[in-house]
Specification:
single chain; 93 residues; mainly alpha; DNA polymerase, domain 1; 5 helices
C-alpha cells in the first residue's frame, strides 16, 4: 500500500488523526510500529520532528520496511533524526 504523496500545504496535516491515518501502511510490522510510535509520542514531538515524521510517511512502503525491519541504512539525511527516535522507541518496546 503506497500513500499518494501529498504536499504539506498547512500545519493541519500534522494533526494526530492525519499522521495516525498516514501511518497505516498495509504491512503489519510497519503498522504496529508507526501507529504505536505516533500514538505514544505525538505530544512529545516538536514541530520539526512532526514535519520529519510526515516526510518519512511520504516514502515508499518497501523502503520504510527495509530501514526499520531489515536494518538497511536510511539514505536521506533528512530522515536520520526521526528514524533514530523511532528505532529507540522500537528497542524500548
Amino acid at each position: 500500500m503506497t500513500h499518494a504523496k501529498q504536499p504539506l500545504k498547512d500545519k493541519k496535516n500534522l494533526s494526530l488523526d492525519i499522521l495516525k491515518w498516514r501511518s497505516r501502511r498495509g504491512m503489519l510490522e510497519l503498522d504496529l510500529l508507526l501507529i504505536s510510535f505516533i500514538d505514544n509520542n505525538y505530544e512529545l514531538l516538536s514541530q520539526e520532528q512532526l514535519l520529519e515524521y510526515y516526510y518519512l510517511l511520504e516514502q515508499e512502503d518497501t523502503d520504510i520496511y527495509s530501514w526499520f525491519i531489515e536494518d538497511v541504512k536510511v539514505p536521506d539525511e533528512r530522515l536520520h533524526a526521526i528514524f533514530k527516535l523511532i528505532k529507540e522507541y522500537k528497542s524500548l518496546k
